Amino acid sequence: MIECKRPEEGNATDSIGGYVGKLLRVNLTEREVKTHPVSKEWIRKYMGGRGVAARIYFEEISPHLEPFQQDNKLIFFTGPLTGTIVPCCGKFECVTTSPLTNRYLCSNASGFFGPELKKAGYDGLIVEGKAKEPTYIWIKDEFVELKPAAHLSYKTTTETQSMIKKETDPTSKVMCIGPAGERLVRFACIQSDHRTFGRGGAGAVMGFKQLKAVAVKGNSSVKVSEPEKLKDKLRILLSDITAAARDYRKHGTLYIVDLADEKGTLPSRNFQAVTYNFAAERLGVKAMEKYFVSHTACYNCPTACGKLLEARDPPYKGIRADLDYELVWALGILCGVFDYSPIIAAVNLVDQYGMDGIETGYVISFAMELHEKGFIKEADLDGVDLRYGNHESMMKLIKMIAERKAFGDVLAEGALRASNRLGKGVSKYVMHAKGLPLTGWDPRAMIGMGLAFATSSRGACHNVGGWTGRDELMINEADRFASKGKGRLVKTLQDTRAYVDSLGLCTYMRSPLGFKGAKPNMEVLQLVTGVDFEGGLMEIGERIYNLERIILNREGVTRADDDLPQRIKSEGIAVDDTGAQHFLEDKEFQSMLEEYYRERGWSLDGVPTQNKLKSLGVP
């Protein structure tokens, strides 16, 4: 066991509350552990979480690096609010080069690991190199140990977490990979307690490094600048916090099934159609109640947005899983499955194998369309009858993907790589942006979402890209079929999400804490940190997004990559009873994209101008 003492050069963030001021660096190749201070300049400019992790990536990761190389790193970083008494502050960020897109990847997770890492004395963790044999990292305050993990090989995520807790400390917090990560499935996830770093394949990077898990136990508390004033402020905000928690607790994100079905925005059958007044009856909040077991919560969370459900029907009866909207969509609606029991079983299976549920559901739906069109024969599928709605075949294919068996080995590469391997022009059926599949919102029914998907820093994403649903579907501030003004809307949403991901705060609690609007209220942050961050939070968010863009530019991203699949631009969908066909014409999309570039101060080639970078102080 190695003792990690404080850096000799001093703690760069001693005077800032909410930060420990120390970064842990583990080199698996050299079996070397170091600590060093966190740059105060980077904290002031990028705050923490996603922002500081991106700044480290910019400094340390070479352009065009292959994800399965020793030089690729896993960069984990907490935010200033992570682990404090501020509610819903269990978030932390992972940044790496994605095995799925071969580009910059940012991903956030909640649970309990991030707060525990900070209580152990570290704002962040960088893992570099590659172990010679299966390994896990055990962090207990200032002591760090690299422990053998051969006995954990190909154990499920639940088994791994349980075994490591027995070996280390029953109250330790564990993030780990499952068998899919060890087999380098390119969309393998990292399981953090009962939450995940889901999209983009960070779990496969861990698998390549032969790092099965990281466990942490901390015995310190997170110091804040004004503890009594912070408590007073949270008491003042308590009614708003309670109201927000109550609204989200009842159904979590599953209410979106009803909303999206009513608005005709629920993609099905690999975006060949949408559901309208169909899915809600079968998978909406009323239908969910039959399967409900309990609410699940993360660190210091009054919301408990997770919904633990139990399958009630054979052959899946008794299987449990924690569900949200995107999982119900990807492993249900998108694959033509409209029954909770098989969806619950499928979610449980991808969780145990350690795979991103969205990409798993997407790649299966993609394969179903290819089978439907005759590009894939049953002989290619080892006898699996891959028709839409066949949940037994979906379950078989999940296992084949996770174990890289037969045709599952092809799909384990992700939809885009699988299409290139299959040839026959099937790449046009991959619904993606920058290599990452679209999620459960059809851009033809809310075109601002199309711009968000196309310009998202990590590829198609409703979080990083900016979720336009509130403005386009819920409060109707923006005409969902009109392009004008969507450039400004998407920029604002993206910048907001960038700073929220850097705070270490769950987005569901940002509004009652004042983190909303064009000029977010920084009082809670200032009481935690004692710092008046330069330019305010929206400028920090904009700075982060521009930093991510110049990272993408140097990795080869141009305007041509800020695009949507041809199906979205040419194949119409009916979103209501009128039967009118909607699609996002390319001319309209390009006009919207140029408006977005102007709002951002980027060239029409999608590159931030020097004036813009200078004004923001990037990097």
Give your account of this protein's structure.
This protein is an alpha+beta fold. Helix content is 38%, strand content 15%. It contains 25 helices and 22 strands. The chain has a seven-stranded mixed β-sheet with strand order 1-9-8-13-10-11-12. A hairpin with a 2-residue loop joins strand 19 and strand 20. Helix 13 packs parallel to helix 15. The radius of gyration is 23 Å and the shape is globular. The chain starts with a strand and ends with a helix.
Give the low-confidence spans. Answer: 6-10
**End-to-end gap:** 37 Å
* Number of discrete helical segments: 25
Instruction: Compute the CA-based radius of gyration.
Output: 23 Å
Which oligomeric form is depicted?
Answer: single chain
Number of strands: 22
Helix % is 25-40%
Mean pLDDT: 96
Major β-sheet, in short?
7 strands, mixed
Shape: globular
> Which band does the percent of strand residues land in?
15-25%
Return the structural class. Answer: alpha+beta
Biggest sheet: strand arrangement: 1-9-8-13-10-11-12
